[in-house]
């Protein structure tokens, strides 16, 4: 069977002045795959997400989305192509409600654009009702149904992360990038997050790349793992292969079994 590559990171280097945050990194992601990127602090994980979403342009190398070169495209162009993300440092519109935040995500892909929506008209009104219904569904999916009209700023940290996921889904993405979605969550919230990510992967059939320090979570849900250290890819493989990889143990996991170290 011919599996389509959704994303192809081809010998990408990203420099900030004298600092090489990413050095000659290559990996690909298949359609429908759930891939994790792990590595120590400062390894370059968020930097590579920033390059995939148009925040940074690779200094060298190519990034292809569905076979098309996307180097240098702007974040809004990449949302329209089907790439959406959440942020390590949560970026919500704090003075907007939960529903309004998700509507912003939907608006990003709306053909009407902002001017169309402002101009109004019957077609826009019908679209808007549909949009609100869709956004409500995403909010229910992430478990925030009873907080629809709450201001984002009033949500606890873990729920703000879920809201970012709903907003990303509302863009209609094919590729969903999650930057440390479990950070700040308690044990129960992490369990629910695992179910949610599985649901998005299996039922919504999104391709997902996950950056996460919670090794239990990563080992639990990823199909494949890429390990970065000091800007370089030091390993790539299944959770089983990564857990026993000597380079990974030395750079990141430590000598003990990581599953014994983390308390979920
Ligand atoms: N805009 C920038 N200008 C200069 N240096 C940067 C910039 N963005 C990232 N860096 C540097 O690149 C390196 C990689 O940072 P990055 O945020 O990608 O790490 P990370 O793997 O996401 O780490 P963490 O697990 O702590 O989130 C770090 O040394 C960081 O200071
Ligand atoms: Mg990071």
Question: How is this structure best described in words?
Answer:
The chain is of the alpha/beta class. The protein has 2 domains: 1-82 and 173-264, P-loop containing nucleotide triphosphate hydrolases (Rossmann fold); 94-172, no CATH class. Helix content is 41%, strand content 23%. The protein has 11 helices and 10 strands. The strands form 2 sheets. Strands 6-7-8-3-9-10 form a 6-stranded mixed β-sheet, with helices on both faces. Strands 2-1-4-5 form a 4-stranded antiparallel β-sheet, covered by helices on one side. Helix 3 (98-109) packs across helix 5 (122-141) and helix 5 packs across helix 6 (157-170). The longest helix has 20 residues, at 122-141. Magnesium ion binds at residues 45-46, 88.
The CATH class of the largest domain is identified as Alpha Beta
Residue-averaged pLDDT, rounded? 91
Number of domains: 2
**Ligand inventory:** adenosine-5'-triphosphate, magnesium ion
Instruction: Note the gap between the termini.
Output: 38 Å
Instruction: State the secondary-structure class.
Output: alpha/beta
Low-confidence stretches: 258-264
Strand content: 15-25%
Number of helices: 11
What sequence of helices (H) and strands (E) makes up the elements?
EEEHEEHEHHHHEHEHEEHHH
How are the strands ordered across the major sheet? 6-7-8-3-9-10
């Amino acid at each position: 069977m011919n599996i389509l590559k959704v994303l192809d990171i081809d010998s990408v280097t990203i420099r900030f002045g004298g600092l090489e945050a990413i050095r000659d990194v290559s990996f690909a992601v298949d359609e429908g795959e759930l891939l994790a990127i792990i590595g120590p602090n400062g390894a370059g994980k968020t930097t590579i997400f920033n390059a995939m979403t148009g925040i940074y342009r690779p200094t060298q190398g190519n990034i292809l989305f569905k076979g098309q070169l996307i180097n240098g495209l702007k974040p809004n162009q990449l949302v329209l192509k089907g790439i959406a993300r959440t942020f390590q440092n949560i970026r919500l519109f704090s003075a907007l409600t939960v529903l309004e935040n998700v509507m912003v995500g939907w608006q990003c892909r709306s053909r009407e654009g902002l001017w169309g929506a402002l101009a109004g008209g019957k077609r826009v009104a019908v679209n808007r009702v549909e949009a609100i219904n869709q956004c409500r569904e995403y909010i229910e999916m992430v478990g925030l149904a009873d907080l629809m009209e709450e201001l984002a700023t009033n949500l606890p940290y873990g729920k703000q992360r879920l809201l970012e996921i709903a907003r990303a889904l509302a863009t209609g993405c094919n590729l969903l990038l999650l930057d440390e979605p479990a950070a700040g969550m308690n044990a129960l919230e992490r369990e629910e997050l695992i179910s949610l990510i599985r649901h998005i992967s299996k039922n919504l059939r999104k391709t997902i790349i996950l950056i996460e320090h919670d090794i239990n979570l990563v080992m639990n849900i990823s199909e494949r793992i890429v390990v970065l250290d000091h800007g370089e890819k030091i390993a790539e493989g299944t959770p089983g292969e990564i857990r026993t990889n000597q380079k990974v143990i030395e750079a990141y996991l430590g000598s003990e079994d990581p599953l014994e170290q983390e308390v979920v």
